[in-house]
Design goal:
Strand content: under 5%
Radius of gyration: 15 Å
Number of helices: 3
Number of strands: 0
Helix content: 55-70%
Largest sheet: none
Distance between the termini: 38 Å
Structural class: mainly alpha
Oligomer: single chain
Shape: globular
Length: 84
């Protein structure tokens, strides 16, 4: 099994942020929100930006909001669309 990248390790502030965002974005599984927060931290580090908690929160919230708004009107419920 490949080792997890250090930038994607869960950190205490990252866990608290992901938990808070999971409560706010209940449409997404908690693991998806944790992954989003970890991805934002990794991207910021890769780009040479300091991944401070406020920056990570702002970027992760924007990403989750964008995914939520791009969802089709039928939503994620099974069989909710006309196509069935």
């Amino acid at each position: 099994m490949p080792a997890q990248l250090p930038a994607l390790d869960r950190t205490e502030p990252g866990d608290a942020l992901a938990t808070r965002l999971s409560d706010e974005f209940a449409n997404f599984p908690p693991d998806a929100v944790h992954r989003c927060v970890a991805d934002v931290q990794a991207r910021m580090s890769h780009l040479g930006l300091e991944p401070t908690p406020p920056r990570v929160e702002r970027m992760a919230r924007e990403h989750l909001t964008g995914m939520l708004k791009s969802e089709p009107p039928s939503g994620r419920s099974p069989g909710g669309g006309a196509d069935g």
